[in-house]
Amino acid sequence: MNHFIGLVGTNSDKSTNRQLLQFMKQHFSEKATIEIVEIKDLPLFNKPEDKTLPPLVKEVADKIEQADGVIISTPEYDHAVPASLMSALNWLSYGIYPFVDKPVMITGASYGTLGSSRAQAHLRHMLDSPELKARIMPSSEFLLNHSLQSFDEENNLKDLEKTEELSNLFDDFLVFVNIVNQLVHAHGSNKKAAANFSWENQ
Amino acid sequence: MKFVGIVGSNAEKSYNRKLLHFIKTKYQDLFELEIVEIKDIPMFNQSNDQTHSEPIQKINKAILDADGVIIATPEHNHTIPSGLKSVLEWLSFNIHPFDGKPVMIVGASYFNQGSSRAQLHLRQILDAPGVNAIVMPGNEFLLGKVKEAFDSNDQLKDANTVKFLGSVLEKFTKFVSLVNRLEAPKEEPLPKEDLHATNAIDTTIADVDMAAEDWVEQAAKKVNAVEGNTYVKLNRGILTVDQINTFLASMPMELTFADENNQFLYYNYTKEAADMLADRVPGQVGNPLVLCHPERSLGSVEWVIQQLRSGKQDAVRVNVPTHGPDKFVVHNYQAMRDEEGNYKGINEYILDFKPIVDWYLKQTGLKLEGEIDAGSGASAKDHGVDAGSGATAKG
Ligand SMILES: Cc1cc2nc3c(=O)[nH]c(=O)nc-3n(C[C@H](O)[C@H](O)[C@H](O)COP(=O)(O)O)c2cc1C
Ligand SMILES: Cc1cc2nc3c(=O)[nH]c(=O)nc-3n(C[C@H](O)[C@H](O)[C@H](O)COP(=O)(O)O)c2cc1C
Fold first, then answer.
1. pTM (whole model) above 0.90
2. Is the ipTM of this complex over 0.90?
3. SS3 A56
4. Spatial distance between the Cα atoms of B142 and B31, rounded to a whole number of angstroms
5. Domains annotated on chain B, with CATH
6. Ligand nearest to the CA of A130
């Protein structure tokens, strides 16, 4: 069975994105294990010159390294990814490259009607930069709008159609992970490329 | 103009910081730039509101007080640094200092794309409803390959880059003027003026018909007004009423007093109407201002009083060119205020400036240049406060 990391894209105590990942963990427990990982205790990225990473960053990086894939659920702040998630990604590409070739599924929840669509586009863009270079599942988007009203007391998604949509996407993700993991040939050199890639040397 | 420059990096070393310092000194003739740092601002957290902490309030105030903002952004992972995003989140959560604020984006990066993607994102973020800044369109300033861009004195090496940056910044100052005019709060109309003087004040003499020809006599009787050789104590001095009259009559101008109730109470009567610069007749004294002016000029009269009462202007001056080229007659409407600054009415003095200017030229040996344009110099012209609309005898 595949093992995934569910990365909570916010440092907020209350989060419908966290709720969504918890729902997925439980709802898809027959198909995969999902370990929920928080970013809320990571410090704000400040590009330290000596490139030392906080221990917690290394811990998260190891978890991602060992997982078969990552599900990131992002809120939308000011039409973009929250600073806390951006900061986590900055750390996770600062001299370490756990995301290179890692299959990633993006989900997002927002209070309004658009369901974080702009933040998700922004996140794709970030994950595509040379030092992250994740393998993002193409042509898929799971937008949970009006997220404050979406869950019942048992933390189940109330909307059955939405639940089915999510299930189908998750099945696709399982296939996608399989395919990506067969594309292993280039992986070694991709990793090297990322490691050798340095903005400093451009 | 006063701008704030936000260093979009919280790192110890930053080329974007260097770029802002260069802008600050190189273009100080265009604007004043206050550079603010973001490194003390904590990570945004929705569940731990620190809006009122000192570093956030400091940047909030700097932005609110500025005419415009310049943001210098690095590029991390194809977007703006998380530290800068965090600041923008604080400034769009419970406070919104960017609302309607003109913003210009610049950016430096190691790569030859020069932070192009970060700048594009920053535009989108600044456009989000919680931020609602007004970003100058076009005019990108991307400084690529930044490590080679500065000389050892932190000056940009390339003359064309310096020239281009100057032209973009100049455009920004124009953009700022434009936006700030657009965003200026709509002015509340000033309260109407009661030109009929119906709101009696403490000094209004009650139960005398303001329109009466002999208002002065009736009113004097009513309050036992002193006259002749009676002494009056003034700030600062003592004069008899006769001396006050002599004194005011000698003033080289026509003086008129209207109180804050818009009642015409006094003029220094020395000449008959036909010989005056602005004709008045003795029977007019006591009238509400509505009776002192022709119907067509009441609008301008009201406008002038509104300016003075509200304090928007302390004096309104109007040149009345109908006296021919040998005179330069100016109606001066001067607000009168008590020691607390309360509006107490209008001191209108009408004066021919020509002899004063002539005397000045003669004394100094200077000469005037150019043609005399009859209508020029009337600051209140746009409001129709024009020739003949001052207080004039009716009929
Ligand atoms: C500073 C700030 C900016 C926000 N901007 C947006 C936005 O641009 N679009 C949007 O849909 N929601 C916006 N929201 C509300 C989010 O929908 C909501 O906070 C989040 O996406 C829900 O995710 P969560 O429950 O996991 O926190 C904003 C919230 C904050 C605090
Ligand atoms: C985590 C990380 C990611 C970066 N990603 C980018 C990038 O996507 N594009 C880019 O042009 N530079 C990137 N850089 C290098 C930047 O050019 C450089 O850090 C910055 O823009 C220079 O500005 P500064 O000196 O003000 O920090 C990255 C640097 C770091 C540390």
1. no
2. yes
3. helix
4. 21
5. 2-183 (3.40.50.360), 214-356 (3.30.450.20)
6. 2
